[in-house]
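The instructor's notes for this session suggest beginning with a concrete chain rather than abstract definitions. Hand out the sequence below and ask the class to guess, before any prediction is shown, which regions might be ordered.
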Amino acid sequence: MRRFAVAGVSLCLLLGIPLKTNANLPIPKEIAKSIPKENQAYCLFTAILKLIKENYVLPIDDEKLIEQALVGTLSALDPHSCYLDKKALDAIRLCAEGRYGGIGIEIVMNNGFPCVITPIDDTPASRAGIQPGDLITHVNGTFVQNISSEEVVAKLRGKPGSKVRLTIKRLGRDLFQVSLVREDIRVQSVRAEIHEGIGYIRIALFDKGTAKELKTVLENFKKEKIKSLILDMRNNPGGLLDEGVDVADFFLNEGEIVSMRGRDPAQNVTFRAKKGELLPNIPLVVLVNNGTASCPEIVAGALQHHHRAIIVGTQTFGKGSVQKILPFSEEGGIKLTVARHYLPSGNCIQGQGITPDVVVPLAEIKIEKEIFTIREKDIFHALEETPSEIAPKKSEQEQNEVIEKTVRSSTLQGTEGKKEGESDDKKALRTMPLAERIDKDLQLREGFSIARALSCLPPAKT
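After discussion, reveal the predicted structure:
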């Protein structure tokens, strides 16, 4: 914990943030006597920096020490805050555009390990059978515990056509390796089909242009005079908040969609729906699961609160925190958690997620091994639903024990199929026509059953 105390001092020093001296800091008596109290922590940092430079086994310069202090500070706050160098900033910008060279997964740091929230549709990761909750322990043979999420992302991304080897820990299995070939990830965020007069829309993630694509689809569905609609946001890892708000707005005429509340009043914002619902009186079913995180949780929560949709599936991930990119310059910055998301009901998404109206577990065709799902609240050092001044203590287990403990921190749910990656049935499911997928996918089948039933009801009076 001393490492993080020192790191915290360094960040305040660099940003010019007033620092309240912690009574637990080991302030030397000479500093305490001769330096004003509000400056004592800064002097402590300088003294420790001097000791490191004079006594560390290898020569080390100030820039390296400061950078590592920043990395430690941000990673100690919560799993989503981190230090960004120029390469990381550029990667975020590219990802926001929905195109980059990589393998197509969304990760979060859990007890120092990269943990898969979900693989993105039709990417090397999803085709290789990477699953939500998988812990990545090594990338190309390099142990990756306790490095920043942005460093992990930098290792995973690369030139399309190049290979990357992951070592993965999954509950109930020994460590195993997966070799992937990077691709130019051009995510098709919106896909649409019509079956038996019912519209089906798959939103894979919320990137730049998602709302625009969806609007075009909904306008076409209106011309086709669909009877009801299914919005599939399972394994959607989130994305741009504005896109999510616009998507929810397409299905609402009024009312609150989501609010953001932080310590700084400037971060407190409420988003409300505007008049102009695109498909009024068309029944709506929304599919979610444990891989539904952040923006899609906002959409599902708003539609559920306003009784505009029936939510079907399993409990969502529960990421209700808001991150803001704060660049120092063109060369670097920080990604910092600045607020929480609150549903129109006043409930916070963080750590809780969205509870479906109709709970339908994921069914596997073969039953051999237990599987697990991971949600935001299961992540080590996750931000709490409500503010707290008490920080959790970090475990000091040995490397393999830490891996096993971390992978078991997730929620056990049901059973899994074949040992190696995903089952052949699951691989084939992605390429099946919609009618066949309905027969194989229990959640999708239930969603269509509800959509059919709702389409038989008379339109609601407005």
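Then share the key points. Residues 1-23, 364-372, 388-397, 411-424 have pLDDT under 50 and may be disordered. The domain at 188-322+337-367+422-455 is CATH 3.90.226.10 (2-enoyl-CoA Hydratase; Chain A, domain 1).
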